[in-house]
């Protein structure tokens, strides 16, 4: 649906764009694709809103805090828009999809609201606003995203994210994603392979396949295609060195897939497989579709077949009805599994989800305390695990200058550790061996070795 209303006249040629993105990797990739399209349309990307003719926010709705941040950024643009009414302000992505028309009501200086499936038409939508001087609402749910990657704006030549499926059919009771991203749609293996091949021809060494629920890749495609089939096909591509995939859902993670990963040389030894809670009772209310013992067994199986595999998780604290005893079970699971790292979130009710009907009965103070407790616990575990690598040689894909020390390089191991090491920029884009001599909970430090 594209609807127009309200007036704003402007003949100026808008050719600079400021773009800020919030939310998950999927959103970041959509931002990259959008910027690719805009660049192809003649836009120059600028770093400051004051220099921009078009200001776009790619938004997230997963927690209230994410939305508040965008609304506050938008509010701050009111004065700029008064001074320069010809500037086009747009809201894209998940919050645009969720709030739609309501965004214009709350922020009348917004010109464009473009949902999760319409960004491929951005240049045309912006032109529409310029030519007709009216608000544009584009939140069609049936539109199928199909962006030619060849035009994509890519910040790192050696690594790329590739969307292999969009949407999510899981409907975990707390989660807004299925409502804003729609039903699962997988791209065909041929389509993904073609994109990866063109990235590899362009110098890309490592790809990360993206899907909200990537283990159910292939559902709906003819011939019973699975993620294992896709990984096997990509593993054969000459020139590609590493393959990663996120995010794994425990209920859809088959043992068959673990076996496939164990025999594919390019698939990295890293799983992001959120547990969300260590309490069966909470997992059931979250509608996650697995028990703690099922999760535990899955990790044991993966570790048995892929000895150096690292597992990362997400946890939500303060889900409705979470008692101290439930929380202690989460603590126990964390202590037992010893994740590489974890993202911890305080439960945030999302209107329209199943859990929004439950009383948000854990106080913010308790949520905060539980959050802190898990963060501290994980920090200690990450530090201990990282220290075990001191004295070892690890393989790193050199990504570029380190952000904290530009005289050094940074990169990642196959298990997804961040490594900072000495070396000249000539090494960027190469797989190198690094001897680790120091470790914090977040970073390994080392020197190049043979
Ligand atoms: N598709 C991924 C990620 C979804 S969103 C997955 O299924 O794992 C990323 C994380 O945000 C989730 O793993 C969950 O831990 C958290 N999250 C989602 N909805 C939330 C909510 N309403 N409140 C707090 N955290 C939430
Ligand atoms: Fe949300 Fe669950 Fe889907 Fe992940 S699997 S996006 S948490 S509904
Ligand atoms: Fe947020 Fe949308 Fe990603 S709600 S987590 S940006 S799919």
UniProtKB/TrEMBL annotation:
It comes from Candidatus Brocadia fulgida. GO terms for molecular function: 4 iron, 4 sulfur cluster binding; metal ion binding; tRNA-2-methylthio-N(6)-dimethylallyladenosine(37) synthase activity. [4Fe-4S] cluster 2 binds at residues 168, 172, 175. Transmembrane segments: none annotated. PROSITE patterns: MTTASE_N (PS51449), MTTASE_RADICAL (PS01278), RADICAL_SAM (PS51918), TRAM (PS50926). It catalyses: N(6)-dimethylallyladenosine(37) in tRNA + (sulfur carrier)-SH + AH2 + 2 S-adenosyl-L-methionine = 2-methylsulfanyl-N(6)-dimethylallyladenosine(37) in tRNA + (sulfur carrier)-H + 5'-deoxyadenosine + L-methionine + A + S-adenosyl-L-homocysteine + 2 H(+). PANTHER family: CDK5 REGULATORY SUBUNIT-ASSOCIATED PROTEIN 1, MITOCHONDRIAL TRNA METHYLTHIOTRANSFERASE CDK5RAP1. It is an enzyme of class 2 (transferase). [4Fe-4S] cluster 1 binds at residues 24, 60, 94. It holds the Pfam family UPF0004. Monomer. Residues 15-131 form the MTTase N-terminal domain. This is tRNA-2-methylthio-N(6)-dimethylallyladenosine synthase.
């Amino acid at each position: 649906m594209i609807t127009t209303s309200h007036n704003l006249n402007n003949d100026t040629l808008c050719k600079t764009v400021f773009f800020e993105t919030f939310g998950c990797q999927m959103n970041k990739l959509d931002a990259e694709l959008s910027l690719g399209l805009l660049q192809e349309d003649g836009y120059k990307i600028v770093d400051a809103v004051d220099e921009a003719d078009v200001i776009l926010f790619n938004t997230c709705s997963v927690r209230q805090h994410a939305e508040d941040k965008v609304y506050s950024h938008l509010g701050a643009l009111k004065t700029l828009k008064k001074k320069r009414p010809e500037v086009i302000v747009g809201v894209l992505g998940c919050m645009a999809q969720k709030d739609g028309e309501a965004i214009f009501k709350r922020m009348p200086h917004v010109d464009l609201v473009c949902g999760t499936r319409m960004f491929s038409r951005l240049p045309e939508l912006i032109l529409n606003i310029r030519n007709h001087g009216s608000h544009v609402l584009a939140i069609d749910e049936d539109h199928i995203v199909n962006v030619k990657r060849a035009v994509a704006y890519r910040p790192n030549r050696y690594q790329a994210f590739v969307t292999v499926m969009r949407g999510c059919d899981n409907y975990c009771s707390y989660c807004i994603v299925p409502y804003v991203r729609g039903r699962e749609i997988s791209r065909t293996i041929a389509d993904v392979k073609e994109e990866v091949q063109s990235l590899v021809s362009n110098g890309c060494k490592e790809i990360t396949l993206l899907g909200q629920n990537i283990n159910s890749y292939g559902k709906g495609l003819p011939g019973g295609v699975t993620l294992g089939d896709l990984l096997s096909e990509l593993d054969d591509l000459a020139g590609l060195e590493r393959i990663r995939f996120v995010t794994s859902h425990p209920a859809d993670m088959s043992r068959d897939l673990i076996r496939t990963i164990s025999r594919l040389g390019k698939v990295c030894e890293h799983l992001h497989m959120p547990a969300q809670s260590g309490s069966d009772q909470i997992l059931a209310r979250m509608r996650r579709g697995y028990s703690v013992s099922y999760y535990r067994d899955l990790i044991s199986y993966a570790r048995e077949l892929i000895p150096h595999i690292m597992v990362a998780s997400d946890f939500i604290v303060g889900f409705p009805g979470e008692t101290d005893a439930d929380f202690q079970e989460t603590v126990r699971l964390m202590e037992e599994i010893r994740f590489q790292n974890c993202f911890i979130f305080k439960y945030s009710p999302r209107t329209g989800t199943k859990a929004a009907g439950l009383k948000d009965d854990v106080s913010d103070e308790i949520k905060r305390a539980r959050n802190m407790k898990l963060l501290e616990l994980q920090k200690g575990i990450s530090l201990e695990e990282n220290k075990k690598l001191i004295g070892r040689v690890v393989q790193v894909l050199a990504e570029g200058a380190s952000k904290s020390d530009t005289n050094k390089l940074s990169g990642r191991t196959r298990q997804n550790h961040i490594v900072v090491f000495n070396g000249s920029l000539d090494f960027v884009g190469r797989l190198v061996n690094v001897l680790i001599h120091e470790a914090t909970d977040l970073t390994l430090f080392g020197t190049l070795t043979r």
